[in-house]
Amino acid sequence: MAKTVADVMKMVKDNEVKFVDFRFTDTRGKEQHVTVPVSHFDEDKFSAGHAFDGSSVAGWKGIEASDMQLMPDPQTANLDPFYEETTLFLQCDVIEPGDGKAYDRDPRSIAKRAEAYLKASGLGDTAYFGPEPEFFIFDGVRWANEPGKVMFEIEEYEAPWNSGARLEGGNRGHRPGVKGGYFPVPPVDSTQDMRAEMALILETLGIPVEVFHHEVAGAGQNEIGTKFSTLVQRADWTQVLKYVVWNVANAYGKTATFMPKPYAGDNGSGMHVHQSIWKDGKNLFSGDGYAGLSDFALYYIGGIIRHARALNAITNPGTNSYKRLVPGFEAPVKLAYSSRNRSASIRIPYVANPKGRRIEARFPDPSANPYLAFSALMMAGLDGVENKIHPGEAASKDLYHLPPEEDKLVPTVCHSLDQALDYLDKDRGFLTQGGVFTDSMLDAYIELKMGEVTRFRMAPHPVEYDMYYSL
């Protein structure tokens, strides 16, 4: 149920709230926050906003133009389930104080412009998104990047490599094997109670949970499936889901990560993104074509496939993302679409009710900024609709095991972040339609991410010692 400013003020009073937390998301997708005592919070905050310094946010303004405003959205009001003192949190848009307009690099404002663009285009009025972010839960993690020491070490009872370990309290032996986590009952699955607590907290925060389970990877990979919603709200919910996962794990003395590939030799974490476009209460993806899809849906798929490599820079935004997207393994690297065939990068899930007709993009991962990722996917799809980009024939074979002569005919996603950023730089027109993304924002994004690429390029890797030390 939508909350008004009056509803928020009543929440504050009824719950004897002591602090209000203003939250916003930076370019990389990390939530930031600033807190005020309730004595400094009133209805005016929803019209005047809260001033803050934006110069220290990566990819944002310089020190010479740092004053920004946080504009809280009353519909996002919730009581924080983890703070010791009663605190209400609000997700915010970032506003330019000079003209009162949305900051062009603010991810949430970009998502709002994407929704507005959809309506203005006349193609539809509502975009629904349903992401499935996977994550790992570990007992502990250590890493070092020193001139003479480069390492990481994961501690996790479930990890298959612990089968022969002498562990404090004894090694009980019940754990998943490599690719064996999907999904035996406890005690092999040791995170059931933790996931249940996460699910209950999400429900209290107004995010409906549909399913939760252990995922394929042996060392603590999990998933909590939550309900689809509109683009901006679903991105808001994704940020809250991450927050809940991190903090419940922390309360259990564990550590959670949405890093796509925290270790080699087992499945990485993806974020499959279900999506559909509606108009006047009608699902525009439903039709009598392939797998019950309309031409609108097929063109939408065509747009995603056409722009997939530019999309990778946003939907797979880290150097680590491409440790997961490796050809020859069970990763959705092939740019093809198929009904129920999970080896294609675009899948059409089977649904009995045509109202549920949707597509599922399988190459994104949970390190993506959800506001930017959902907006970019929709803009690519709408470009396909506007330009009638047909995706060709559906893939009927297992794309993981094609004969070489057929395999080379199927295009793939990018193999590295720098390649994806190069595609984004050259293929950005679909994103800047209607001013949804600006060239200034995309230039700043590419510069920010190329900094990560350069740092990664300069760092010697332990594998290189294996391959080259004795040459």
Automatic annotation (TrEMBL):
GO molecular-function term, one example from the UniProt record: ATP binding
Binding locations of ATP: 210, 274-276, 342, 355
SMART domains listed in its UniProt record: Gln-synt_C
InterPro entries recorded: Gln_synt_N (IPR008147), Gln_synt_N_sf (IPR036651), Gln_synth/guanido_kin_cat_dom (IPR014746), Gln_synth_cat_dom (IPR008146), Gln_synth_gly_rich_site (IPR027303), Gln_synth_I (IPR004809), Gln_synth_N_conserv_site (IPR027302)
Pfam families linked: Gln-synt_C, Gln-synt_N
Naturally occurring in which organism (per UniProt): Verminephrobacter eiseniae (strain EF01-2)
Superkingdom in the source lineage: Bacteria
Record field: catalytic activity: L-glutamate + NH4(+) + ATP = L-glutamine + ADP + phosphate + H(+)
Entry similarity comment: Belongs to the glutamine synthetase family.
Any one GO biological process: nitrogen utilization
Gene Ontology cellular component list: cytoplasm; membrane
Database matches in PANTHER family: GLUTAMINE SYNTHETASE (PTHR43407)
Keywords: ATP-binding, Ligase, Magnesium, Metal-binding, Nucleotide-binding, Phosphoprotein
Cofactor(s) the protein requires to work: Mg(2+)
Domain GS catalytic: 107-471
Binding site for L-glutamate: 267-268, 324, 330, 342, 362
Entry keyword annotation includes Disulfide bond: no
Domain GS beta-grasp: 15-100
Entry's EC annotation: 6.3.1.2
Cofactor comment text: Binds 2 Mg(2+) ions per subunit.
O-AMP-tyrosine, modified sites: 400
Name of the featured protein: Glutamine synthetase
Binding site for Mg(2+): 132, 134, 215, 223, 272, 360
